[in-house]
Amino acid sequence: xxxxxxxxxxxxxxxxxxxxxxxxxxxxxxxxxxxxxxxxxxxxxxxxxxxxxxxxxxxxxxxxxxxxxxxxxxxxxxxxxxxxxxxxxxxxxxxxxxxxxxxxxxxxxxxxxxxxxxxxxxxxxxxxxxxxxxxxxxxxxxxxxxxxxxxxxxxxxxxxxxxxxxxxxxxxxxxxxxxxxxxxxxxxxxxxxxxxxxxxxxxxxxxxxxxxxxxxxxxxxxxxxxxxxxxxxxxxxxxxxxxxxxxxxxxxxxxxxxxxxxxxxxxxxxxxxxxxxxxxxxxxxxxxxxxxxxxxxxxxxxxxxxxxxxxxxxxxxxxxxxxxxxxxxxxxxxxxxxxxxxxx
Length: 344
Description:
InterPro entries: HTH_LacI (IPR000843), LacI/GalR-like_sensor (IPR046335), Lambda_DNA-bd_dom_sf (IPR010982), Peripla_BP_I (IPR028082). The chain is α/β, with parallel strands linked by helices.
């Protein structure tokens, strides 16, 4: 279609949009088959699904989500609320969610809280007005307002990123256990003056949970557990700042357990710049298992969190609940692995 033809078509008052019936006629199938293509595509045979998909593209059909929601009282929209849309950790979780939910005919509606629980409550209140089929939200810690909204809501909720008792379903990992595992690893490697460094741990409370596990491991070994909690969330800059601060004020420190890989990599880069030998002068460890850590010199010792798997399993739990299928378990612990690089 030429540009002029398209303009003329849009200009005609009352011009009819392609309908589901048009798609069925083009594909040579019944209208109910086209409906199933949008509502439950996995129920169709591959050949039928491809035929309907080609017909949708040929006639230019776009599904009217509002009309569908009027008939079912819910939309095929799943809000996803996370602290950040710039952090690769949450981007990978969202990718896992997207793989499963879009294949089942659902669309994601994204919102970020900036680690602000009041902002989270505002997003929940707004998104529930979309008559969503379910909701996915990061964390187990919420404001009273958020908890009340979600407890009174009649649709499924999956809390992600951490493992524990939640509002409904839960997929994540035990952050206290992760912190304990890394601290134990550093102790087993012979380090005895180990600091933990984070940034705004009151807001990033999962990093605070990892510190609690770290502290328990050190105290069990009869050692103190110094904490440096910086006020800035400029993560790589904060890592460099933490390294310099600890080297200046605690010269006997032989290892720093950072709250995340961003801070740890910032410290590694600062050490390279200033001629500090890692791990000979001081060891560095992180959390998340980000790709950048594998490309540092030396490679970063870190805890790897299965971020994409968290998204996939959360989507699967949500879809089972929507379809009325048995869940097996409400809470899923995806675990973690310790990757031993050369930085510790």
